[in-house]
Amino acid sequence: MAKKACVPLKNRKGSCFAFHVHTVIHLIFSVTNTSDGTGGVSIAGSVNKNRERTRRREEGRNKRWVYEKPIPGVNFPPHILKKKIHFTNKNVPAIPARRMIIRKKPFTGKNHAAPDSHFFENLLNNLYDGVYYVDSNRRITFWNKGAERITGFTSADMTGRCCDDDILTHINDKGRSLCRGACPLAKTIADGLPREEEAYLHHKDGHRVPVKIRVTPIRDSENRIIGAVETFSEISSRGAIAQRMKDLQKMALYDPLTNLANRRFLQMKIESRLNELDRYGWPFGIVFIDIDHFKGINDTYGHKAGDRVLKMVANTLANNIRVFDVAGRWGGEEFIVIIVNVREDKLFSIAEKLRMLVEGSRISIGSDTISVTVSLGATQAKPSDSIDTLVGRADQFMYRSKNFGRNRVSMG
Questions:
Q1: For 54-81, how does the pLDDT look when each residue is reduced to its tens digit (9 = 90+)?
Q2: Chosen domain end from 75, 110, 145
């Protein structure tokens, strides 16, 4: 096999570069002697200029060029061999017609070092969605900033804990705990299949947050499952809710404790919906909600604990209604939710869902865990209704729920 000579190209300071190009460039040249007997290389009198131009263009790319000159043996087209080529460099010996090849190779200097684990950790921490890893025993080994934002639990709270330690306690829309026999992480670790599911996780402040869960197995170099990664994102329209809160603040129509709409705003909304029902026939209903045994919480744990319970219930209601529905604080421990575009069966279903989610929420006070239930009264608006008759009817059905044992929905 023919040997190859390597000619280094020097920059202005005399240091060698070695840089490579994706494409292979063929420079065909022949040799003639100049009048002074010296030899050098130029193509149509412009190789030196082209070389300098190429060097300056590539200098800023952290590349280094290597010129390889294989021994000839290739038949070149006649129009190529007719190019005017002569030598001007004394240090380059006269050589027969050859082919100059430029090849591109990867550069592995410090500026191009492979990303380390900190790079990927920072990348995951900048994601808006929640991400966490578990090992084969479902022990959490990584918890990103997105997960902290959505759940309220920090990485220090979660790292090293098992996902079934009764922290997030995912439940489905039937109120069934996913951590006991229906955990998507456990199933994926067992069979290696990715999964998607909607659930309601427990926030550190006590309320329930609707999330979309995606689980994928993690495998080692031998394709064995060594854990899983779960990503989750909020389903509730946070952007729409935030904008709505700004509007409420500007109009001073929100409740300062719970950040829900206040009584005045609820009255305005009910009046507007009654007008739409009368003019267009658009149906809607309301749900009147009262926290069971709330006075006992204030008496036992104090009013600060009572305020936390009010916030917990308010957040659970606000996070689990549709964007165009409205939840507000009517007064004390009473709330009203305005549900639009529904008939009686759907209204009852929404009210029952809210009851179940409040029952599954809880807060911690010292060593005690506090959970509450609510009694609900739901009613469909009638064309003949006023604000007082509609709210009064819902209030009556709420008291019917109280009389029949609390923690239930009554409707009529």
A1: 666 655 544 443 433 443 444 444 444 4
A2: 110
